[in-house]
Write a structure and sequence with these properties.
Blueprint: H1 10-19, E1 22-27, E2 31-35, E3 39-44, E4 47-53, E5 56-62, E6 65-69, H2 75-85, H3 89-98, H4 103-111
Antiparallel strand pairs: 1-4, 2-3, 3-6, 4-5
C-alpha cells in the first residue's frame, strides 16, 4: 500500500494507519463485481479491505478477475425460458439473472410460482 513498506507485518501496518486516523477493516466477500459500460469485471473470493479516512471510504480489492458482457443473459435463453414456463419475457429474464443464467433452474423457478 505504501512504497517501501512491503515487509511490514499486518499489525504494524494497522497501527501506522490508526496513527494517521485511518480505520481499516477486512471484508468477507464471496464476489466483487464492477459494472462497466458493456462489460463487468468479476472477482471471485476477493480480499477486500475497507479504509475509512475522514468519513470517506476507500475499498481495496485483490484477486483474479474475469470479464463478462454486461448483459450475460441472451435473448434466445429469455425466449426459451418464457416459452417453456408460460411466463412473460420480463419474468424469464429476471429468473435467468437470479439463477446466473441456468436455464433449467429458471424454468423450474418460474413454474413453481
Amino acid at each position: 500500500m505504501f512504497p517501501g513498506m512491503g515487509k511490514m507485518n499486518p499489525q504494524q501496518m494497522q497501527g501506522m494507519l490508526r496513527q494517521f486516523g485511518i480505520k481499516s477493516t477486512e471484508l468477507k466477500a464471496k464476489r466483487a463485481i464492477f459494472e462497466l459500460e458493456g462489460e463487468r469485471i468479476v472477482i471471485d473470493n476477493p480480499t477486500i479491505t475497507a479504509m475509512d479516512m475522514g468519513g470517506q471510504k476507500i475499498y481495496s480489492v485483490m484477486g483474479s478477475e474475469r470479464r463478462e458482457k454486461a448483459d450475460s443473459v441472451s435473448q434466445e435463453d429469455i425466449d426459451l425460458v418464457a416459452t417453456q414456463s408460460g411466463k412473460s419475457k420480463t419474468e424469464a429474464k429476471k429468473a435467468l439473472e437470479e439463477t446466473d443464467g441456468d436455464i433449467a433452474q429458471a424454468i423450474v423457478k418460474l413454474k413453481g410460482n
